[in-house]
Amino acid sequence: MISSERDTGGVILLGVEPESESRLSFDTDNIVEGNFIDDETDEGLVIGRKLAESLETRLGKRVVIMSQDPDNEIADRGFRIKGIYKADIENLEERFVYAGRRTVQDMLRLGDNVSEIAISRNDYRHVAEWFPRIEAAIEPPAKAMPWYDADSYLGSMLAVMDGFVLVWVVVIFLALSFGLVNTLIMAIFERTREIGLMMALGIRPPNIMIMILFESVFLITIGIALGNGLALLTIIPVQDGIDISIVSEGMAMMGTGSVLYPVLLVKDMITANIVVVLLGLLTSLLPAWRASRYDPVIALNKT
């Protein structure tokens, strides 16, 4: 519990190592008043902007934090507000307060014990590659957990969102395949007499089929080039973020910020291009086969 002269509220008190915390999860640029914790023994407190408003307190004021030690006895301490931070998700501003690790350990009579050591790498989605090594390095009673187990709600939400994206991508590619088949079939219908003439001049049906497939690959290549170019032109200018604060309350309920940061990954582009080429070739087989089965006499007399 945190108490000011005006009000009281519940918070999560984090005793941190400032240098490590700033590299892991706390952006010191989010400090709007005052400063972040200097070191582990710093006796100041950093709170969120919304919490400061609800407690009707401000920078430099004194607050009291009350909790329980490992023996379930009351532990309390007075802190002076050293810094006030803002967060992308306003709810976090009312939940988390920061103090020096050693200061909190002394307050709660924990000795040198800590409750959590967080380890992060660049790709949060693929922790299975390195998590087993961390799990093997620790000894009971310590326990290692990947982030999606530690925060099962966020992990479930991400899985659901991935499912929606997969369905959307499948629908897009199916629409692409139908559009490509329709285009090729119409092109073949308009060139029936031309194809009949080539067959009458001795071009074999397999060669007709290969010609249609090459035309399909040519169309697909042009489409991929234009699509990649449009992707670069539309995504790169907005990589600094798209503000959707108009729905910030709904985004906060899902634990996400009100700014979207589009990212164009090279591996995603390559994967999409390969899928488009393979799908285009598969959908081109039917029109190409139909063109190769024309009867030259009937095709030449068709109007």
What does this structure look like?
This protein has 303 residues and is an alpha+beta fold. The protein folds into 3 domains: 2-118, Barwin-like endoglucanases; 124-150, no CATH class; 152-300, no CATH class. It is built from 12 helices and 10 strands. It has helices at residues 18-24, 49-55, 90-95, 101-108, 131-137, 147-150, 152-190, 192-200, 205-235, 248-253, 266-292, 296-300; strands spanning 2-3, 8-9, 12-16, 31-34, 44-48, 62-68, 74-85, 96-100, 242-243, 259-260. The strands form 3 sheets. Strands 1, 2, 4, 5, 6 and 7 form a 6-stranded mixed beta sheet that branches. It has a two-stranded parallel sheet with strand order 3-8. The protein has a two-stranded antiparallel sheet with strand order 9-10. Helix 7 (152-190) runs parallel beside helix 11. The longest helix has 39 residues, at 152-190. The mean pLDDT is 85.
The rough form would be described as elongated
Query: H/E series, N to C?
Result: EEEHEEHEEHEHHHHHHEHEHH
Mean pLDDT: 85
- Measured as a percent range, the helix fraction is 40-55%
Multimeric status of the protein:
single chain
Sheet of most strands: 6 strands, mixed
Question: Helix count, per DSSP?
Answer: 12
Q: Give the count of structural domains.
A: 3
Residue stretches low in confidence (pLDDT < 50, at least 5 long) are none
Percentage of residues in strands: 15-25%
> Helix/strand-derived class?
alpha+beta
What Rg do the Cα atoms give? 31 Å
Report the count of strand segments: 10
Distance between the termini: 86 Å
